[in-house]
Amino acid sequence: MTTSPDQTFLARTFEDGRYAWTRTHRVRVRAVLAEAALLGALAVATLVQALTDDGWTTAYFLAWSAGMLLFIPLHSLLNLGIRGVFDRGRHSLDEHQEGLREHSHSSVGWPMTALTFAAWAGGIALASGTGHTVLALCLGFLLWFASGLLPYWHLAWTLPDEEDDALSA
Amino acid sequence: MLRAERRVSRKELADGVGVHPQTVGYLERGEYSPSLALALRIARFFDLPVEAVFSLDPLPAIGSELTRRTP
């Protein structure tokens, strides 16, 4: 059990008061929806591209790269909103934060397993059964990526608003 | 609230017992039940027995309790 959370550089960033605006439920929910929409858009773009006769064009891969680049600030926003409890070392978390992390992990355990299984089994089946290797790789990657994001989304969605520190000093 | 009555800031209490300030907020709002170790550290911080700080029933404010006991 942690009795004295260490303030690493990463932990100090996540605790920085300048980012208090990201720790409201409204901002966190919007970040989750934006990430889910981005992954959904990439999945739709992949399916549309697979159905066209043009093959896998440069424009498609540029769009994919842009989507992944857009994901970085979105996930930074989400991570600031949940104080980065999934990305900080355990020594920088107190018992409540560790509890939040474990609760979210256990709450989405089955969906995570199902998505990961679907990513690997579906990808292998698609590639070996139909020969659509790129489609299998892209969709498999998106499913696997989404499975890793589920605990973040769960915590961001369920964490209540924090009280204004100015009121509590 | 005990912390307010003692004029202790949330950060001072958090630093004193080794948790993050927002965890103190969750404790005060009843949204989180502390471990026994944390409860004991909080009681020691206020120099009170743990049962004077935590209870299954709502606790009266210390100020009103002292006023009631004063003859």
Give descriptors for this structure.
heterodimer; A: 169 residues; mainly alpha; 7 helices; 73% helix; 0% strand; B: 71 residues; 434 Repressor (Amino-terminal Domain); globular; Lambda_DNA-bd_dom_sf (chain B); DNA-binding (chain B); Cro/C1-type_HTH (chain B); DNA binding (chain B)
Describe this structure in words.
Chain B: One of its GO terms (molecular function) is DNA binding. Chain B: InterPro entries: Cro/C1-type_HTH, Lambda_DNA-bd_dom_sf. Chain B: Keywords: DNA-binding. Chain B: Residues 2-53 form the HTH cro/C1-type domain. The complex is a heterodimer of chains A (169) and B (71). Chain A is mainly α and 169 residues long. Chain A has seven helices and no strands. In chain A, 73% of the residues lie in helices and 0% in strands. In chain A, helix 2 (25-51) packs antiparallel against helix 3 (58-81), helix 2 (25-51) runs antiparallel to helix 6 and helix 5 packs antiparallel against helix 6 (133-158). The model of chain A has no long low-confidence stretch (mean pLDDT 89). Chain B is an all-alpha fold. The two termini of chain B are 24 Å apart. The model of chain B has no long low-confidence stretch (mean pLDDT 84). In chain B, helix 2 (10-17) crosses helix 3. The longest helix of chain B is centred in the middle third of the chain and has 10 residues, at 36-45. Chain B has a single domain (2-52), classed as lambda repressor-like DNA-binding domains (434 Repressor (Amino-terminal Domain)), CATH 1.10.260. Chains A and B meet through helix 4 of A and helix 3 and helix 4 of B.
